[in-house]
Amino acid sequence: MADQTTDVPLIRAGRPPRTEFCVYFAIIFLATLPLAALTWALAALKGGRLPEKGPVARAWTQARIITPMIFSA
Known about the structure:
The protein is mainly alpha-helical and 73 residues long. Helix content is 66%, strand content 0%. It has helices at 18-47, 55-72.
């Protein structure tokens, strides 16, 4: 039997609004892009060949990791 005595908001609890998430994702992606390009270039120079993941893919991955951490805190 469900507890009917508590007020439960009708919005989805624990899930960030989509627009706010996209804005944070874009900001973090743009912030990580220069560092990802630098690490990609250094890895290319050091290894003598291009890494599998390019700088955009690296920045995208970092933004996908960091952004949910902000919303879960």
